[in-house]
Amino acid sequence: MAIIDWTQHPPLIYTDYKSSLSRGPTQSPVDLTTLYGESSTLSIQEFDGSLVNRFTIGELDHDLIRNAQQGGYPLGKRMVVSGKVLDQAGRPQAGVLIEAWQANASGRYAHKVDQHDAPLDPNFLGVGRCVTDNYGCYRFYTIKPGAYPWKNHPNAWRPQHIHFSLVGESIADRLVTQMYFPGDPLLNYDPIFAAVPESAQDRLISTLDLGITEADYALGYKFDIVLAGAKATPIDAEQGA
User: CATH code at 182?
Assistant: First the structure.
């Protein structure tokens, strides 16, 4: 497993992010790699073997615009989100599973728990996945998500964002993070974003990229993801490590 530099990530308990107070860990983490290395008989299944290039991906799994169509296209601004997955030395990582989930253009998730008074889109499920290629590249087609209210504090609204989960060599090599959009004024009011060290916040904001944009179809946004080290993409404080 890669070495995590925790100075690049938000604290797992952050006072302004209310629910982290009750669900954040209160004890020091256990270093499984140390336990594993000290025993000649202990076997931790999550470390055995490799998951790289063992994932099966459907033809439209990466295309959130088309993978849930019920006779029409989803509403909203079409986007291409693309970038590279890199290790702490800047080397591209092939065979990494990336899962994405997000709200629709109205700011509502297609999930029974989300009871926000905003319309669901019958043609948009808001989930997808892909595997990085030999150059560490990934690509998703989707709709720009809307902002939505949440119960953290009075008049609280989450900025537009997309969640990403990455699985590497093993199930223990997992990064959960969020991608935000440039110029979003709600970033200044969001405690989840504010929990990230200021020096690392820009790593969570995508970049408009006309080189990724597909003419007459979808705007392109670039978002590289670094798995560890001093330039790591910060973890999602909402989900934990």
Answer: 2.60.130.10
Which member of 62, 108, 129, 161 is catalytic? 161
161 catalytic? Reply is: yes
Question: Which residues does 54 contact at the CB level (< 8 Å), separation at least 6?
Answer: 95
Residue 17 structural domain: 6-226
Contact assessment for residue 203 and residue 234, using Cβ atoms and an 8 Å cutoff: yes
Residue 236 maps to a domain: no
Full-model pTM? 0.89
Taking only the tens of pLDDT, the chain with its 241 residues reads 566 777 888 888 888 888 888 888 888 877 766 766 666 665 655 555 566 667 788 999 999 999 999 999 999 999 999 999 998 889 999 999 999 999 999 999 999 999 999 999 999 999 999 999 999 999 999 999 999 999 999 999 999 999 999 987 766 678 899 999 999 999 999 999 999 999 999 999 999 999 999 999 999 999 999 988 888 899 886 554 3
- 87 in a domain, yes or no? yes
Would you say 79 and 223 are in contact if contact means Cβ atoms under 8 Å apart?
no
158 is catalytic: yes
Among the listed residues 236, 237, 229, 208, the one whose alpha carbon sits nearest the alpha carbon of residue 99: 236
**Number of compact structural domains in the chain:** 1
- Please tell me which residue in 141, 163, 180, 221 is annotated as part of the active site: 163
Residue 73 within a domain = yes
